[in-house]
Amino acid sequence: MSRLAALPDNDPARRGFLHRLLHDRAGNTLALVAAATVPILGMVGGGIDMGRSYLSQSRLQQACDSGVLAARKKLGSAVVVTGEVPDTVEAAGNKFFNINFRDGSYGTESRDFVMTLEDDNSISGVATVDVPTTIMKVFGFDEVPVQVHCEATLNFSNTDVMMVLDTTGSMRQTNSGDSQPRIEVLKDVVRSFHAQLEGSKGPATRIRYGFVPYSTNVHVGNLLEDDWVVDRWTYQSRQAAGTSSTPGIAESYENFVHTGGPDAIYATESTYAPTWRSGTSETDGGGYECNAPLPASTLVDDTTLLSSATEPFVGPPAGTKTTEHYRRVRNGTYYWVEFTGTRCQVRSARFDGYVEEYDKITMPRWEDTQSYLYLPINRDVTNWRNESSGCIEERATYEISDYSNVDFDRALDLDIDRVPVAGQPDTQWRPMYPAIIFERSMRADGGGSFVLLPVASSETFLAPYWVGLAACPTSA
Question: Assuming Cys at both sites, which of 59, 111, 144, 208 could form a disulfide with 131, CB separation 3.0 to 4.6 Å?
Fold first, then answer.
């Protein structure tokens, strides 16, 4: 036993040791460090793990933003009109998200990205990921869940939109593979474009629209004074040059008699609303049409010649008249359409062994042919306001080769400030009469070629107005 341990509590020597131990600080540092290790570890570990979490959150937000932006751009504005979302939209959004935040980036786990099309056609997204902890596992925190939200909206500032629309005659034609003329397709595109912009703009956005119809002609007749238009003008036209007659053959079918089998059964198969066809020219204002396809006909005719007889035909012209007597047996059904004024009716006639006999009569006849002289014709146009459509031909001009030195005394069509002078045709405008213009010696089928000299012919040469190449647009 040591001497210290044997000393009683009240011994002065023992009290001195305890007193010194109580006031001795030589071992405090080790105790404090040991006690502070746990909170220090928590703070350092939390800082490291939260730093990784914030970095993952920042990059995940960037990936989410890029994903919805790519998806919204791919969606476009057509969804406002069609309501259809292409399959490529989601693929585009996921592609950009995956590029910006790859699976396993920064040691993350359980990556997920979901996009949603909102009612206002914006695309929202939610991206989530788990960030595994390192030091904080000691305190029971195995992972930090991270979630970000993002949204992309198609929007634009105040905008002025000017549409230059082709309204030339060729727009009445129908492209191969289309079911309606070009001008109708153009109208649909303009309406769809307008609906897309209006449906995509923000509440405070203002859009103004302007339209410039483009045509080869201008309709300014209502803006011109009488003295600004010529009294007479020359047009590439034609005039009648008499008729000629040549022998021909006339055929007719007569004397139909039902000789056997049940009567045909007539029925209304279906009805539908007619469609409106827009006008194509000044004289064609359009109208309703029944243009739905008809069922395929199954009608089969079995025709037999029973007899044939000839007799002299006095004429004129003299010749031979032939009468052929036939029997026809009909089986099957054929269809046609009737327009009642408000509805289109698909009608049918059904035959089941229907037998009839009739005569086919052939005899000579004169075929009259009108001849024309195609040439420039000078015409009195003082009544142009009532006779013409209001479109005009330009004033006098010349073939310009140097546009930096235009002679406006000759190119009057370019001098918009020049006021026409009565009695000076070069300064005046000329009314357009498209219905009397002919491409001399050129046929509608593309044959022939234009010539300058007059041509006498029984053919009807190409008239640009008839094929829609001389349309007159809406008046200015």
Answer: 144
pLDDT bucket at 233, cuts 50 / 70 / 90: very high
The whole-angstrom separation of Cα 253 and Cα 336 is 21
- Structural tokens at position 384: 């142009």
pTM beyond 0.85, yes or no = no
Taking phi first (over 0 means left), then psi (-120 to 50 degrees means alpha), and beta for anything else, what does residue 466 get?
alpha
* Residue 282 pLDDT grade (very low, low, confident, very high; cuts 50, 70, 90): very low
Better-predicted residue by pLDDT, 265 or 35: 265
